[in-house]
Design brief:
single chain; 676 residues; alpha+beta; 5 domains; eight-stranded mixed sheet; five-stranded antiparallel sheet; 33% helix; 18% strand
Length: 676
């Protein structure tokens, strides 16, 4: 039974799965065209090979019932999907491939349904019928509020989708026309909804395919005056039933369509819930799936219908991010979005990895902010209602930065199956050790801070927190844990506070109260600055040596591990790589290398100029990450301008820049064309 309930957002249509593999391969090819280091390119090639294996697997099982091979398919696809997201640095949802080209669905409302066509990168579905279906009739249950009556109706999703259009804006609406509509409220009364988002519709199509997922919130539908809409009323004038006549369909050759050119002819207006209805209708489950909707009759008036839409979407308050994550965890909600998945993960299946990462990092945050021994007690905000405590980070941001601890490459992977209570104990020991080191509590450790102030405060000020307890910079402390764990040794897990103290000792003389340190790493907005801090700390820990205050806080000791936290990088090396040609030739690229200076970010920036110092970078400056050998490689292919002796091709100037939070440094290499 458990196997039946496995989460499958990838569909069961063989053609759809083939399209998925093709889309993944195309996406990889697009990534390959970007500026990447050798390791990333190798990973892309590896993923290409795995996708070929998956493709062959699908072909070899094409004549079998899906239930026979579904579990094996899911075990194959989930790791590949997560790997693709990591390489592309995009959290796209399963089903996104369905928006990349025209789709044809062979299921829909009525026996006369022939075909549904979904245009490329469009949310619009056009339904074709071999004949006009019989009218659809729904019973209506009246609800009266303040002398206004609306109705609750039960139907099949496929039925509702077949008769509803969306009063949405034109996709190419000119700004001037928008202005006219502001000035004249009666202008284009059938256009006031947002355009449907194809990716969101595809995500809902995948979501509803999960056996445990339902869509219970009710769409809102308005029935404008139309000859295709008929009512039956009781003696009190209340609507008993509503019928939709399909003669609104447009004759096209030998078919009937619900569109004429780009005009949607379906008579009812779907004023709220368009993504739900369109998404579910693109899954074959819609044929049998019951749904309730709220019907507003024509006598309500279009103005009132639009007003209701506005009230639903502008007055209603969405749940806060902290409330959402609390609810997802509390009720173990599944999601196609990797950072929102909190399904049960007891079976250690590939599709459960994201849930495990999210759930354990969230629970770890709760543990750290709750127990009395934790330096983070009352410092991690779990809910908006937590009004006490001068928080240094909230649970959402903690999870974002700590979930990697529980990945395959983290210190607590699924494969090790380490008890979560032991994990939380080890993590708490890490933070206790950090507090001990930076406050100089360590036995036989450094002297007290000359000013007598602690650098870690269990009750920090609400405003003006130091660099260590600054919200942005504290992310670096979270990301530092895997390095610290990897350097611990000599005892069974969980690693003790004493073990972590030895590993973290190189941080003892970082003065987290120093204003220059705060200006460099905490005051500036942007992700790169706290990541620079992380790089410096990782280098310090790996180096494993402790230095004096003056050495650590120096702004003149360049690119030495554990020293010069306020210093810019040293001047980098730049040279032609061994076995590279001295000048680009057809089929032979010139390769320039530069070693990454210590305490720099992973990424270098390269500029290429010709004889006249004109920039020649294709599509702008190039950025490359350092590879495992700590070298960045700039590959220069042959271009025709390189042969023009008088104007451009006599020589080249190549500049590489490396940076950290304190500045940057560059080196220049001039290469003369051997032809001249």
């Amino acid at each position: 039974m458990a196997d039946v309930l496995r989460f499958n957002p990838f569909g069961d249509d063989p053609r759809d799965r083939n399209n998925m593999v093709l889309w993944m391969q195309k996406t990889l090819n697009k990534i390959s065209s970007q500026s990447l280091d050798g390791d990333e390119l190798a990973e892309i090639e590896e993923l290409h090979d795995k996708l070929e294996i998956l493709d062959n697997f699908l072909i070899s099982n094409s004549d079998k019932s899906e239930s026979v091979y579904e579990n094996e398919f899911l075990d194959l696809i989930f790791p590949l999907w997560e790997q693709l997201k990591a390489l592309s640095k995009t959290d796209f949802s399963p089903g996104i491939w369905r928006t990349e080209g025209k789709r044809e669905l062979m299921y829909g409302y009525s026996e006369f349904h022939k075909l549904t066509v979904i245009r490329k990168k469009s949310a619009t579905s056009v339904n074709y019928y071999s004949d006009i279906p019989e009218l659809v009739t729904w019973d209506c249950t009246p609800i009266t509020q303040k002398n206004q009556t609306f109705y609750i109706v039960r139907t099949k999703v496929a039925e509702l989708n077949a008769v509803c259009s969306v009063p949405s804006f034109d996709k190419s609406l000119p700004t001037s026309e928008s202005g006219f509509r502001v000035l004249d409220r009666s202008r284009e009364p059938k256009q006031w909804q947002r355009n449907p988002n194809p990716d969101r519709i595809a995500a809902i199509e995948s979501f509803i395919g999960e056996n445990r997922n339902i869509v219970a919130n009710t769409p809102l539908v308005y029935a404008p005056e139309s000859k295709y809409i008929k009512y039956q009323k009781n003696k009190d004038g209340l609507i008993k039933s509503i019928s939709i006549d399909f003669s609104f369909l447009h004759k096209e050759n030998n078919s009937f369509s619900d569109h004429k050119d780009l005009e949607d002819l379906r008579p009812l207006w779907l004023i709220d819930g368009q993504h739900r209805i369109r998404g579910i209708s693109q899954n074959s489950i819609s044929l049998d799936l019951d749904i309730a909707f709220v019907l507003f009759p024509y006598d309500l008036g279009v103005q009132s219908a639009a007003k209701i839409f506005a009230e639903v979407n502008t007055l209603a308050r969405d749940l806060s991010d902290l409330h959402k994550i609390f609810m997802r965890h509390r009720f173990q909600l599944a999601s196609v979005d990797s950072d929102k998945d909190f399904r049960p993960f007891d079976n250690c299946r590939p599709e459960e990895k994201n849930s495990r990462m999210n759930s354990l990092s969230y629970e770890c945050a709760a543990h750290l902010t709750s127990i009395s021994s934790s330096p983070l007690r009352e410092l991690i905000r779990i809910l908006d209602e937590n009004v006490t405590g001068n928080h240094i980070i909230d649970a959402k941001m903690f999870v974002k930065n700590a979930r990697g601890w529980f990945s395959d490459n983290g210190p607590y992977p699924m494969s090790e199956n380490m008890d979560k209570n032991l994990i939380f104990e080890e993590v708490c020991n890490y933070f206790i050790a950090l507090e001990s080191v930076v406050n100089h509590y360590v036995f036989k450790g450094p002297d007290e801070w000359p000013d007598g102030d602690s650098r870690w405060l269990r009750s920090p000020p609400k405003n003006g927190k130091n660099t260590l307890q600054n919200t942005r910079c504290f992310r670096a402390i979270i990301r530092l844990l895997p390095t610290a764990v990897s350097l611990c040794s000599g005892e069974d897990r969980p690693f003790s506070k004493n073990n972590f103290e030895k590993v973290l000792a190189p941080l003892a003389w970082v003065d987290w109260n120093n204003e220059d340190l705060h200006s460099a790493y905490a005051k500036k907005t942007g992700e790169q600055w706290w990541k620079c801090l992380l790089v410096w700390m990782e280098n310090a820990l790996i180096n494993g040596k402790s230095y004096s205050y003056d050495e650590v806080m120096s702004n003149e000791i360049y690119s030495e591990a554990g020293k010069g936290i306020l210093a810019p990088p040293a001047k980098p090396e730049i040279k032609i790589e061994e076995n590279s040609p001295e000048w680009p030739e057809k089929g032979k690229d010139l390769i320039i290398i530069s070693s990454r200076p210590v305490n720099c970010t992973l990424t270098s920036t390269w500029t290429l100029r010709d004889t006249n110092l004109m920039p020649r970078n294709h599509k702008g400056k190039k950025k490359f990450k350092a590879q495992l050998d700590s070298k960045s490689r700039f590959v220069i292919p042959y271009y025709s301008w390189m042969d023009h002796d008088s104007s451009s091709g006599k020589r080249m100037e190549i500049v590489v820049d490396w940076m950290n939070a304190n500045g940057e440094n560059s080196s220049k290499l001039i290469i003369n064309n051997p032809k001249y």
